[in-house]
Amino acid sequence: MFITFEGLDFSGKSTQAKLLGDYLSSLKIKNILLREPGGTTISEKVREIILDREHIEMTPLTEFMLFSASRSQLVSQIIKPHLKKGHVVICDRYYDSSTAYQSYGGSLELKAVKEVNEIATGGLKPDITFLIDISPIKAFERANLRGNAKDRMENKNLKFYNKVYKGFRDIANKNKKRFVVINGSLTIGQIHTIITETVNKKLKS
Ligand SMILES: Nc1ncnc2c1ncn2[C@@H]1O[C@H](COP(=O)(O)OP(=O)(O)O)[C@@H](O)[C@H]1O
Ligand SMILES: [Mg+2]
What we know:
Elements: E1 2-6, H1 13-26, E2 31-35, H2 41-51, H3 60-84, E3 88-92, H4 95-105, H5 110-121, E4 128-133, H6 136-146, H7 158-174, E5 179-183, H8 188-204
Helix pairs in contact: 1-8, 2-3, 3-5, 4-5, 4-7
């Protein structure tokens, strides 16, 4: 089973992905927790290029191609082999993030982004995608609470994040079969419960 987490930065994806992995491990269900961009030696190197604050000259298309390259390697080298072995693969962001950030948030044509997403992943679609829904304002509040240096992606402005936010909700609406939208203002425990209930139901079916 392939499970992805989506949402704005600070929505709680990494928190929930980790909790889900721990939960599955406690039930002796084999699982692997991955993050995007990253998860392989090559993909982690690409991650450094994408997030480097010095790379102000990076074009939207270059950025998208780098995300896609990182993802393509991750899918071939890690995700597909683990799914074949029967593992639950949990991925902290996947191609919906590219659609939301680079197309809705950026300037790239939706159709082109979708096509490259398909090519980069060989059409591998998640079984469940959890969208943790918090507004950009709320995300900014949490970011300020944290207070340390922002990376290149986090440095973009509120207008950009409003577009990304709308993008995620749009994508969820168009893919109702695999999306579960969760109110990110609930407590960490409440969100975790919704996630485990959804995953248990899917594991039984
Ligand atoms: N449901 C929640 N309510 C309040 N704070 C949360 C919640 N989930 C996560 N956080 C906090 O918000 C911050 C961002 O969480 P994180 O899981 O790293 O988000 P993301 O991976 O989406 O960027 C962390 O400080 C985390 O402890
Ligand atoms: Mg995270």
